[in-house]
Amino acid sequence: LNNKAGFQLNGLSKVSDNFNTVALAIYMTAFTGLIEPNIDMLFCVDLSDKEQTPIPVVLRDMAITCNSYVHYIIKNFISIPIIILTALLTVWYFLKILQAFKKKTLLNEKTLEKIGLIYYIYREKFFFFEFFVIIRRVILVLGKSLFIWFLIFDWINSGLIILFAYLLLNHSIHHYMKPYKEKFASINEVEKNSFKVNIFNTFMSLLW
Question: Which is nearest to 143 in space by CA: 162, 171, 116, 124?
Answer without folding.
Answer: 162
